[in-house]
Amino acid sequence: MSSRLNDYEYPLPDELIAHRPLPRREDSRMMVLHRRPQTIEHRQFRELKTFLHPGDFLVLNNTRVLAARRFSDNGAIEFLFLERLGPARWKCLVKPGRKMRVGATSKIDNVVLCVEEVLPDGERIIVLNEGVDLYTGGSMPLPPYIGRESDSEDETRYQTVFAQAPGALAAPTAGLHFTQEILNEIPHAFVTLHVGTGTFRPVRSEKIAEHRMHPEWFSISTEAANEINKAKRIVAVGTTSVRVLESAHWENGKLIGHTGSSDLFIYPPYRFQHVDLLFTNFHLPRSTLLMLVSAFAGREFLLRAYDEAIRERYRFYSYGDCMLIS
Question: Which of 65, 128, 158, 279 is the least buried, fewest Cβ under 10 Å from its Cβ?
């Protein structure tokens, strides 16, 4: 059984990491994995509809990424503001941490920030000398592997075209491929899961079952639940939509609209209860996202597909190409 961290390793040439989005969202390549015959096709994302059957229904995450990244006025400290706890109190991550111990101060837009507490996982509780919204004037928190500062292009391209509910610290990247025109042609509904740092925290235990996910807030409206319940097959767009559907409350096979939080960690040999097809991007080695997709596709088949994607020069990660697993 694939229970050890090294089971989810693969080598990736740096030049296959997508540092910028394609000029058009819909121009991504799409690898199609057919689980039953264990076959692979190389297609284009704009062909997605041709792989869907009558009664298939897409479920997408409409969270909106916050402009949560800020720098101190002197440029010495980088802040990622995770959560507003009150008018003048925030939870954040800082770099370098050694400069922001309890009692240390810094300034953003001449507002003084003081470290009140350092939490066990390294997060800081910060108190401001006046109540301000630190997301105003912030920048997109691009993943470190993109290797550059965010710019005006990322303000639109690191959001899905259907982003509505502010609260995420990272984009639900499978949704980045969709245009409104493509969505108009495919039955779909939206759920919300605010992607937090827990989704991307590295797995440090060699036995993956010992890893713990941080809870992430989600919401399913009654209207969305009713539409999803009509589906013959549910197509989850992205791993966050999977986690909503697999964490949600179902009664007698019917999804119930509600809000909640999910700390569900999906890895082999997890048995999916509600997702029939998965549309996703290519994920980092040793990540919880790769483990989730391995549980859905089968680890050996998935890693064989990743090897083929590397040979075929697919683009990887947030701004990269995509995969449909049927």
Answer: 128
